[in-house]
Amino acid sequence: MPSANMGRIKAIIVKEFFHILRDPRSLTMVFITPLVMIFILGYSVSYDLNRIDAAVIDLDQSPLSKRLAQAFAANRVFVVHNRGDAPGRMLSLGEAEEMLRRREIKEIIVIPADLSRRLAARGSCEIGLIIDGSETNVANLVYQYDERILLEFNSGLLAAGGTAGRLLRLDTKIYFNPEVRSQFFFIPGLVAVILLMISAMLTSLSISRERETGSIALLFISPLRSREIIIGKTIPYIIVALLDGVFILLFARFWFGIPLRGSLLVLLLFALLYILSGLALGILISTSAPTQRTAMLATLLITMLPSFLLSGFIFPLDSLSPVLRAISYAVPATYFLRIIRGVILKGAELKHFLFEGGMLVALSLVLLAAATRKFNRQRKAAQ
């Protein structure tokens, strides 16, 4: 077998380095992507909660029950809600459950009416806990914090003397996902992430394809306005992406057994707004990317990483640093995750997601406006 010619190998090596250097955008992305991942993961990978909103319903109103309620309120993580819609009126269980459905709180703590008597007569008493199980990771963390606080409270009772063997215990109920199945948490999140990625991918290749083939010059000299071109390139993909979204939802429903406790019509309405934001993001990427490959890489980077790490899909938003939490407001998946989990697991209605729907509309309009402006500048520069 003839030996390798080092001169020819060297020529190939030099040639490949020239190819790499001639594509600085891809090279930059190769080096920037790991830095972005380390930066985001370094701040977002946290299994601690910085805030737990809880409703306390004290039916006993004794000194002991008030001390227990104060034990939760004094903890730096807990924000306790215990007032109804009128000054001085205690929250009812129905009001607290509605707050749980609207994501205003993560749990309800119910102190029974005869706490002191039960503790004296039986030596123990159950404290009712109702936890939102739609986010399994958060539900487990909330329960762990509750256990720790009750353990400290029981230690205080024992240290006070006269209560040996008389301890409080937790009687826990999980709402919306009683079995705490992780699939009920992850599958809706995956639907949201995949739908955004597919929507953005569909339109991210449109203008970059025109640029690669040279047909973009025909668009530049056409009598169509820039916004008409952008809107015209977006609308066909709305139908394709919506059909794709329905297909993904049906697959999740019948293959994984994901429930649908709310209205399918409400879910599809918000899915349409979400798809529009993804298509608008793809159009903006397409106006900036010189090639289809660059557009595809940029789409994957811009949609996948933030949607996985900064939307609440894996890590609770309350565990993020203030800077990353602020960035999460610009991620469309942040809002659709609340919607899809709320509709599927909680049976939430249209009125519960007016803010999220408004933010999706606002993001879509901002992204479409930015894409139109960018395309218009390129058009003027080419003329």
Key descriptive features of the protein:
about 375 residues, 2 domains, about 65% helix, 5-stranded mixed sheet, abc type-2 transporter like fold, alpha/beta, 14 helices
Describe this structure in words.
The protein has 383 residues and is an alpha/beta fold. It has 2 domains: 52-175, abc type-2 transporter like fold (3-Layer(aba) Sandwich); 181-382, no CATH class. The protein contains 14 helices and 5 strands. Strands 2-1-3-4-5 form a 5-stranded mixed sheet, sandwiched between helices. The mean pLDDT is 83.
Short recap of the structure:
The chain has 383 residues and is α/β, with parallel strands linked by helices.
Number of helices: 14
Instruction: Please summarize the sheet with the most strands.
Output: 5 strands, mixed
How many strand segments?
5
Helix-strand pattern: HHEHEHEHEHEHHHHHHHH
Radius of gyration: 27 Å
What is the count of distinct domains? 2
- Strand line-up across the major sheet: 2-1-3-4-5
> Helix amount, in percent?
55-70%
First-residue to last-residue Cα separation: 59 Å
Question: Helix/strand-derived class?
Answer: alpha/beta
Low-confidence stretches: none
Characterize the overall form.
Answer: elongated
Estimate the mean pLDDT confidence.
83
Strand content: 5-15%
Topology of this protein?
Elements: H1 6-21, H2 24-44, E1 52-58, H3 63-74, E2 78-81, H4 93-101, E3 107-111, H5 115-122, E4 124-132, H6 136-160, E5 167-175, H7 182-213, H8 216-221, H9 226-255, H10 264-288, H11 292-309, H12 322-328, H13 332-346, H14 354-382
Parallel strand pairs: 1-2, 1-3, 4-5
Antiparallel strand pairs: 3-4
